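Supplementary Methods S3. Complex input for the zinc ion-bound model.
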Amino acid sequence: MIEDKRVIEFLKKHKIKFKEIKHHPVHSCKEMAIAAKIKESEIAKSILFKTESGFALFVLPGNKSINERKFEDIFNEDIELAKPDEVEKIMGCEIGGVHPFGNLAGIKVYCDKDLLKNEKIYCSSSTTTTIEIKTKDFIDITKPEIIDMNVIKKGVKESLGLTTTRKENFSKWYLDVIRRGGFKDQRTPIKGFDVIMPWGYAVWEQIQNLMNELLKQNGVQNAYFPLLIPESFIEKEKEHFKGFKAETVNVTEVGGEPIEKMAIRPTSETIMYYMFSLWVRSYRDLPLKINQWCNVVRWDTKITKPFIRDREFLWQELHTAHATREEALKEIDNIIKICEKMGEYFAMASLPLKRTESDKFPGAEFSIAFDTLVQDGKVFQGPGGHFLAQNFSKAFNIQFTDKNGKKDYVWQTCLGTTTRQIGGIIMHHGDDKGAVLPPMLSPIQVIIIPVLFKGKESSILNVCKDVESKLKELKIRAQVDDRNYSPGFKYHEWELRGVPLRIEIGPVDLKKNEITIVKRYNNEEVSIKINEIDKIPKILDEIQKEMFERSKKFLKEHIHDARDMEELKKAIKNGIARANWCGSKDCEDWIKAKTGAAVRGTLYGRNEKPFAPCVYCNKNAKYVVYIAKAY
Ligand SMILES: [Zn+2]
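Predicted complex, serialized as structure tokens:
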């Protein structure tokens, strides 16, 4: 073991007395405590984290568990666990054998105060060697920043409004809009499990309403399936299991007693298809189209981002079963139409892309996802559908008797839309004042703000209420904001939240029998007569269309043909590269490694002809693909 030497030489160089304990290879503190015959609380457990500004080493007693939230509090920024190859590269050792001498690798050390209560501590210099040193010596040579993980930092009240612009810091701008616009609050005790705030949830309800309408037009029924799924179910479809294993959270005990291992659903194919196998008997039972709205949990270890990468999120998952391949493929067309319609509601232009083999849904024959470009030049995956063929029906034995009395397995598809979409909408449409919601999605379409003057309060408020009820009759989601705040404060707040239309009514307007209308998406201000209120639905329709047109133009302007890697790198700086690809996974991986951008797929149903050789290997190209950095 090379590492033995480095740590030991380091200790010798600093004239530190230490004792070596040799044992069989161990991969956890528990194993180490048994092998070296020591207490777990005396072990200096070392964990390497990646922060936005670099790596950091956290050292804590072996019996204490990691709380990422507390680490984030210390750093005041997002963190993620370093990957095994990063640990090896930086610390020169395997996970399970990480030593606490971060300064040996030029990394700052943070140490929990409880560990330092021990007179001597134990640490690994490799998986087969445990070292005993005096705590005092450890502090002297590593000079750690001492932290107290028992203290829970309370969330703080924040100032209102945005603290940065999109250009200065897109990521921070996004977080500001999310929290201060009332969409989501991530100051929760567990990373990736956030609160969807009332305004954000109301947007989700809007998405649900629109989606439910489209699904029901397509003959879909809503149902609800259980949260817990036996692990043996998830194992049944091999690719599927492989794809989700690392992110799946399991329940293994109840009341302290072990129980059969059950997964908290990362997705519901396995439980739904088990039930499908009980329900489907003959061709008369097909097609079967069942949708559920629920939460799923996927323990992503990467840096979380509200809505965009959460560990728990909400979604709809539609699952269908059909008698023939053709019928299932036809359902894919229906799914695409639904996605396109939703795209119109989101006012987000997108590319329907057939994902590459390595990027498709685990267990699917092919996957289609709608990619939208957001303002920082990255793409964002919207709703997506999967053609599952008979992969799952064979694993779950969903058989039916066809018209000729012959048994066959059903053909399947699925479709999903998640709360992720809300993040995409904000990143796509937002501006330096906050979110900009398309009228179809905004929980409030028209906010009416009285500009009150002494002596005129009641007459102005009455007109406001009157306008509100007229708009409601016209089926517009309108609301008077009569809170005791200044009009300026209210303007800011509703702009931050993204309400598409603001009506201001003050004494001057009243005199002229007019109201002032301000469009959120382009700040245009117009006056209309009070008796022209019925024009407002049309104005909202126009805003919806104009936002969609603006989005289409933005997408078109940011797709560039790339014939070689130089052109590719240029194109992905602020958009999407349209390039040629030979189809090999090697080239796909190299493109990702060299540029950080991913091959997102081919335009579905278009069969575009290559216009140059493969952008990476220069051999004959088979496909025209779209390549971009992605969220
Ligand atoms: Zn190639």
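Residues 582, 584, 587, 614, 616-617, 619 surround zinc ion (CB under 6 Å). The chain has a mean pLDDT of 92.
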